[in-house]
Amino acid sequence: MLRKLFIPLLICTFSYGNGEVLNDSLYLHHHVATIRRTETNRAQFRQSLKKIGEYLAIESMSELETATTNIETPLGTAPHLVCTEEPVLVTILRAGMPLLEGVQEVYPNATVGFFAMARNEKTFVPEVGYIGVPDVQDKCVILVDTMVGTAGSANAAIEDLKKRGAKKIIFLCVMISSEGFENLDPQVKVIAAAVDPILNEKKYLVPGLGDAGDRSYGPKK
Ligand code: PRP
Fold it and tell me: Is this model's pTM higher than 0.70 or not?
């Protein structure tokens, strides 16, 4: 009985403040299940993140400016809705990298920026090691990171991007905690693949997937 009730709730996209959780795609469920699974190896893990990135990026296109354009074909004219702005892509190292690769499949010519950040393991506050971001003044930025726990890392990147004059920020992430959703800058549109209910004492998502950076590239020493 519980199972019958749970499945329809599981397979539906739902809104969460200014965010959207794309819960109705079996394709996404397949790849999110793959990255959650303990046995998934590093190559499969990055490959599924890339697939999720591509899917989230396709969804993000509806947030961009569009115009109807008449396309000349060899036999006539066809009206099409096309994107008229090229977003700037920005990711947070390390775990954002495989996701970014998928996003680049959709926006192959976009300029790309990087924040090197790691959460301090005691305070959970992100420490920034390096920022390399192209011009974002008056541009739409698509920020990409795999996990959101406290939202400290995402908010630090968002604050910096706002100071640089970004016109609009769309945040693509795979897994976000309910707490992270509440803490995220409400001006930012969030598109996520899954929301997890628990942040444990080490600020890891539960059930989550462990450490996405380590699972993508190996543990840090
Ligand atoms: C993870 C993740 C996010 C951050 C989320 O990175 O990729 O960037 O933690 O946590 P928060 O929402 O509480 O700030 P981590 O610091 O583990 O670095 P890594 O990607 O190099 O492993």
Answer: yes
